[in-house]
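About this split. The held-out portion is used to measure sequence recovery: a designer receives only the structure tokens and must propose an amino acid at every position. Recovery is the fraction of positions where the proposal matches the reference. Here is one held-out target exactly as it appears in the evaluation file.
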């Protein structure tokens, strides 16, 4: 099918991402999606059993907690009111660009990322209730700290935004820059949550694992698009 690229030049419809068809591609995809899921299962088992990994996690947290304004700012980047509007702006931009260039099913990538964001509380909240992990001592009594909802929100919002933007960015430097920015933002959120004592390190790592698998699945559905 003929259509125009982002600069208005006619071209053929680019290939669309999907599940790899080659054996090596399928193995790579399974590793991308499966390894984080396995790591999440291991962490969850250790937290539930209060195993050696969970005990190391708690000792490490005790040495890391030191509250301050800079780390509070980093933790706040995982708030819904901060991260979700960023994703929403990218969803609208990408949908507009795709429609303007005559893409078939121009709405699908944005809809997929929006669905991924909407699913976050549907798996985070039940896991918090089921596992009922207490928080760091500075948070006082209470449970529901595992996994970290702020980490999941930031990971899906910033990670999903980058995956949608990549096909529309011109040049490798621009693509590298947005990937690095998303990684730095998510590391910052995780560090801020741990440093402020809002979460144990494993709470953050567990959310990263789940979101890595979810974003990997989204990546296979993102249109290659013009570069």
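Reference sequence for scoring:
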């Amino acid at each position: 099918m003929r259509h125009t690229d982002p600069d208005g030049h006619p071209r053929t419809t680019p290939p669309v991402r999907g599940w790899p068809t080659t054996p090596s591609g399928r193995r790579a995809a399974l590793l991308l999606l499966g390894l984080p899921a396995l790591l999440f299962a291991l962490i969850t088992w250790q937290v539930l059993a209060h195993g050696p990994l969970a005990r190391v996690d708690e000792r490490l947290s005790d040495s890391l907690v030191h509250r301050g304004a800079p780390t509070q700012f980093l933790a706040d980047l995982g708030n819904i009111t901060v991260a979700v509007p960023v994703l929403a702006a990218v969803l609208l931009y990408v949908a507009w660009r795709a429609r303007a260039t005559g893409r078939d099913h121009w709405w699908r990538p944005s809809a997929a990322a929006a669905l991924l964001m909407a699913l976050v509380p549907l798996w985070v909240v039940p896991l918090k209730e089921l596992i009922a992990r207490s928080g760091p001592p500075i948070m006082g009594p209470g449970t529901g700290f595992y996994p970290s909802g702020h980490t999941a929100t930031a990971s899906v919002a910033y990670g999903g935004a980058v995956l949608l933007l990549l096909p529309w960015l011109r040049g490798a430097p621009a693509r590298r820059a947005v990937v690095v920015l998303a990684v730095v933002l998510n590391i910052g959120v995780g560090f801020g949550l741990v440093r402020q004592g809002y979460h144990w390190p494993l709470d953050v790592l567990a959310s990263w694992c789940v979101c890595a698998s979810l974003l990997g699945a989204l990546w296979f559905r993102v249109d290659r698009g013009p570069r």
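Annotator remark: Confidence is low (pLDDT under 50) at residues 12-16.
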